[in-house]
Amino acid sequence: MTFVKSLLLAGAIVGLAGAVQAGAIVIKAPYARVSTPMSKSAAAFMEIENSGADADRLIGVTADVSAVAELHTHEESAGGVMRMVEVKGGILVPAHGSSLLARGGDHVMLMGLKHPLKQGDVVHLTLSFQRAGAVEVDVPVDNTRQGPMAPMKMGD
């Protein structure tokens, strides 16, 4: 790939990663990652801001690239074993606050990928909120992006 094509691709990824607003909800800096080219699953991350006076809750997600999309988190048991679990009841986005979907914490899990995802692809998500309703987000696949790590949650 030539330098110019690489520069254009990088610009497109940054442009796609811009904020999406729906009412009081703003989706910032979304990106997705896959672990290997043969992976059957991937994860998506983003920051969700709520400028409204009322809390909202992310209660569901659908994706165009996978058979199943769920809200997940990582938990550490009292014995120190890490496990990924579905978030039942959704993810709270506090009034005048934000929720971070980040590696090692809450995230969107894409399972049963319909085709391999590669650097520069775009995943179309529909996020479902209790108050804001459906919010459509185009999420660039960026396996080079590190992003913040979420603090680990302690379970029972």
TrEMBL record:
Gene3D superfamilies: PCu(A)C copper chaperone. It holds the Pfam family PCuAC. SUPFAM superfamilies: DR1885-like metal-binding protein. InterPro entries: LpqE-like, Lxx211020-like, PCuAC_sf. This is Copper chaperone PCu(A)C.
